[in-house]
Structure formats: structure tokens, C-alpha cells
Amino acid sequence: MLRKIFATTIAALAIALIAGTASAEMKKVRIGTEGAYPPFNYIDSDGKLQGFDVDIANALCAAAKLDCEFVVQDWDGMIPGLLAKKYDAIIASMSITEERKQKVDFTAKYYSTPAKFVTKAGANIEITKAGLKGKTVAVQRATIHENFLQDNFGEVIEIRSYATQDEANADLAAGRVDLVLADSVALDEGFLKTDAGKGFAFTGPGFTDRKWFGDGAGIAIRKGEDELRKALNGAIEQIRADGTYKNINSKYFEFDVYGG
Q1: Shared fold status for 27-112+215-252 and 115-213
Q2: Cβ atoms 145, 181 nearer than 8 A
Q3: What is the per-residue pLDDT across 193-249, written as a single tens digit (0 to 9) for each?
Q4: Dihedral sign, CA of 179, 181, 185, 189?
Q5: What are the extents of the domains in the chain?
Q6: Alpha helices of the chain — where are they, by DSSP H?
Q7: Within 13 A of 41's CA, how many CA atoms are on the CB side?
């Protein structure tokens, strides 16, 4: 009888050890983010990462039972850093586009907002080729917004590309460019509602054309890492269902950033 109990105990311990090893392999996940795109991701005065992307990432890691750590990466090196295994996932307001899907896989979206132009209030600039002719437009480099500008207005405007959105906004505030194009929420919360944004306003419609703006912001992972992708997709569904997403949304926005 003692032999049977001993054998059963050893077997149980072996199973637990195997399960624990598998869990440990999945447990540690490094999250790449920019840290320069308020209110979605930014570094506060204490040097800590903050923002909607960061809170969502922490909530997803808790829901999926993953032990996550953040890695800050300049935007134009975000996908190369993922492919070089500098981190395991990108949670940095990266839009799900066909071009990017050639290099990486994506989860389902976790939010979706339109792009808009900002210029001086009262400038009355029409967002047409005729209205923008001869204007200088600021945009963050290596973004869907830069692609949209090049494809639709590149022949009539001067495009100035910047490493960060803050740099683009700063040149607009300083009068060095006529307009800036970016995500409407990032412009509203990160510029128009700040002291630097006083005297500026949105102009023209919101842009959501899938050809340039994709299917919303998702989490990018390396191709073939289906276990992580499924875990994160399940976590997105969980935080949407249990109210966690709504609480995070309400912390930053007065509307549903998830979109239709």
C-alpha cells in the first residue's frame, strides 16, 4: 500500500513539475512599446511608462497569467526589434495593415480611432489637393499616416517626417509647418488639450480607409507564435467582458475608444 501511495505521489510531482516547466516557458513575455505617444504610451516625470497601451498590456498579461516586462523602443525600429527577438509582442498603438502582416502576425484589435489633420484655428484649410497645395504637413515617420499623406497628397504638399509625434506637434506649435496628421485621439489628448495646442483645432474629416489605416490597433507578434497570439486574443475577450477594458477606457477617454 505504501509503495502505491509513494508511486502515486511521485507521478503527481512529475506531472506538476512538467506543467510548471511549461508554465514557466510561457510565463515571461517582453512587451515592446514606444513611450512617446501620449495618451497611449509615454514616460512620465518620474521616468515610468504610462498610458492606455501600458494599462491594457498589464491587464492582458494579468488575464492571460503572463509575467510581462516592458522594453522601450523607438517607433521606426519597432518591427525590426520584434523580429530580432528584443521583445515578444508590440503593444504600441500599431495598426493592423496588410503591409505589416507580411512581416508579423497580429491579434484582434484592442482599439480603433480615425486619423485627422490639425492646423491653426480659423485657418480654413480644406483637406483636398487644391486646399493643401503648397502646404507643409508634419507626420511621424514610418506610420500609416505618412503612407496616407504620400499616396494621397504627396504631389502637392511638402511632407516633413519626425521620429516622434511630439516632435511633429512641436513644429506645428512653432509655426514651422502648416498642419499635422496623426491619430485623432493622440492629437486631441496629447496636443490640443495641452498648453502647446492652444489656438489649434481639427480640420477636415476623420480618415479610416482600410487601405491605409487597417483594422484598428492590434498586438504584433512574430509569425508562427500562435500560442502567444491565442493567449492574448483570449485575454482581450476577457477584459472586454469583465469590465476591465471599460475601466481603463474611462480613465483616459470620455468615449468608447474600441470603435465599431
Answers
A1: yes
A2: yes
A3: 999 999 999 999 999 999 999 999 999 999 999 999 999 999 999 999 999 999 999
A4: negative
A5: 27-112+215-252, 115-213
A6: 2-27, 52-63, 78-83, 98-101, 129-132, 144-153, 165-173, 184-187, 210-213, 226-241, 244-252
A7: 23
d(CA 199, CA 209) in angstroms, rounded, equals: 29
Dump pLDDT digits (tens) for 20-42.
444 445 589 999 999 999 999 99
What CATH fold (topology level) applies to the domain 115-213?
Answer: D-Maltodextrin-Binding Protein; domain 2 (3.40.190)
Residue with cell 502505491: 4
Please say whether the beta carbons of 185 and 253 come within 8 A.
yes
Secondary structure letter of residue 66 according to DSSP: -
Assigned CATH class of 27-112+215-252: alpha beta
| CA of residue 71 relative to chain centroid, distance | 14
Residue with cell 491605409: 212
C-alpha cell at 189: 489628448
